[in-house]
Amino acid sequence: MGVPLPEKLQPKNQATRSPKPVHGTSDFVVVSNRLPVDRVADEQSDAGWRRSPGGLVTALAPVMAARDGAWVGWHGAPDETLEPFHHENMDLIPVPLSGDEVELYYEGFSNSTLWPLYHDVIAPPEFHRTWWDAYRRVNRRFAEAAAGASARNATVWVQDYQLQLVPRYLRQLRPDLRIGFFNHIPFPPPEIFAQLPWRQSIIDGLLGADLIGFQRPNDTANFLRSARRFLGASVKAQQVHVKEPDGTISHIARAEPFPISIDVGQIQKLAADPEIIARSKQIREDLGNPKTILLGVDRLDYTKGITHRLKAYGELLKDGAITVEDAALIQIASPSRERVESYRLLREDVEGMVGRLNGQFDTIQNTAIRYLHHSYPVEEMVAMYLAADVMLVTALRDGMNLVAKEYVAARNDNTGALVLSEFTGAADQLKQALLINPHDIDGLKATIVRAINLPKAESSRRMRSMRKQILAHDVQRWSEDFLTTLQVEAVRDDG
Ligand code: G6P
Q1: Predicted confidence band at 387 (pLDDT cuts at 50, 70, 90)?
Q2: Quick one: which atom of ligand 1 is closest to the CA of 184?
Q3: Which Gene3D superfamilies match (predicted)?
Q4: Pocket of ligand 1 (CB under 6 A)
Q5: How much distance in Å is there from the Cα of 86 to the middle of ligand 1?
Q6: Cα–Cα distance measured from residue 339 to residue 336, given in angstroms and rounded to the nearest whole number
Q7: How many structural domains comprise the chain?
Q8: Domain extent at residue 321
């Protein structure tokens, strides 16, 4: 490829000094920006940590237990260095970040450069050299921690856009490792990716992996087009022959789609739990038993199309197509990246809209939109899914959207309607959803009305078919598919 590799940067202060790479003992190492645990205030629970909710850790925990696994990631607090610790059969290796690095690497390059750039530039990405320097430095630190934890010939699986340089650094440090990478968010077309001043280094970083996974076939194609265009890589049958600076072939990197899923078993089990079913009835009751409950569940992020959804809903109230007596919209918006400017602005927009709409349409008895700026435990989420007749997923761009899959998994009785943006990865699998373009407000309004009035036979036919898809493709299968492909390719290379 001939691209100069990002040079090793000296650590700036004691708190963030990188460990020297040494061989470790783990045969399987996962690397992600965040460790899969949250700190709990309650001192009674296991060492003050609780496993984070979410499919990834559920899928990987059994692999970890079986293969003496380790997880490398940031523990969420700035300026704090923690020793590795053990939690529920996993070795957790915390990577320290200074306050400056949280600002430059996490809020800056990851979430104000890459996140908007990779999501169709819905918000304008910012390009700052100081952010890029911090991104390189922190990626190097994660790679060194992973190298230090890995046994000889171990498998390392790097997760997501915050760590795209880790595969390359890791291969330099430990050529014996088998390296996988999975991008949880979209990969943009080369016409947009071209804006990034460091586009060659990012592609080169990813090509350090043996297998690079994406959510959709389109993301995979975008990446391969960028590899060809910006690095002159020769791409054949989704494979790139990665060259050393002297022109010899170092390895073959393969790019493929692996659409992620959810822990279907857990959601189904909760959806059948009598206490959760009772709670879902209580929610309906508390809302005054309206004919229809509509639900939106999102991180408060500008990619999720929350303002588009509110605009459509507000117009339906104005038109009289929906009344607050007959319908209630619950919008859960969980707090996210609150120190990033575009997220602060979005919160103001959303809360302004909700306030205006409720001011205009509420009655003493009924509220047009129940807006909840909280996160909830999975049990309460499943109760909401059971209470909701219509689920609204109107993302402008989304790598996958697991909320859509969770709603489908929770609907054990095949009722309910899913309105789903075609700009989500989930739309590839949930073809029987009512698909919408969230920019088309008239189309969105018509589809919401259609969802509310969907004949029982039709909604049940659609839900049955979506459930069949989801039940056959849970997150365990996703991780098995990825890791099997990674190993199969290893055998092929060796043979
Ligand atoms: C998306 C990303 C994840 C990220 C999550 C929450 O799903 O793909 O990598 O962890 O958002 O965002 P946060 O910035 O709070 O980690």
Answers
A1: very high
A2: 8
A3: Glycogen Phosphorylase B (3.40.50.2000)
A4: 34, 160, 184-185, 336-337
A5: 23
A6: 9
A7: 2
A8: 264-473
Q: Are residues 233 and 294 in the same domain?
A: no
Nearest CA to ligand 1 atom 7: 184
Q: Is residue 462 helix, strand or coil?
A: helix
Instruction: Give the tens place of pLDDT for each residue, 186-211.
Output: 999 999 999 999 999 999 999 999 99
Which residues have a catalytic role annotated?
184, 398
| Nearest alpha carbon to residue 184 among 166, 162, 206, 169 | 162
438/453 same-domain check: yes
- Among 379, 391, 381, smallest CA distance to 309 is for 391
Distance 57 CA to ligand 1 centre (A): 14
Q: What is the value of pTM for the model shown?
A: 0.93
> Do 453 and 488 lie in a common domain?
no
Q: Are residues 238 and 322 in the same domain?
A: no
Residue 146 alpha carbon to ligand 1 centre in Å: 20
Residue nearest atom 10 of ligand 1, based on CA coordinates: 34
The three-state secondary structure class of 315 is: helix
For the chain, how are helix, strand and coil distributed in percent, rounded to 5? 45, 20, 35
Look at residue 16 and tell me if it is in a domain: no
Shortest-distance atom of ligand 1 to CA 161: 9
Is 6 part of any domain?
A: no
Q: For residue range 410-465, what is the model confidence (pLDDT) as tens digits?
A: 999 999 999 999 999 999 999 999 999 999 999 999 999 999 999 999 999 999 99
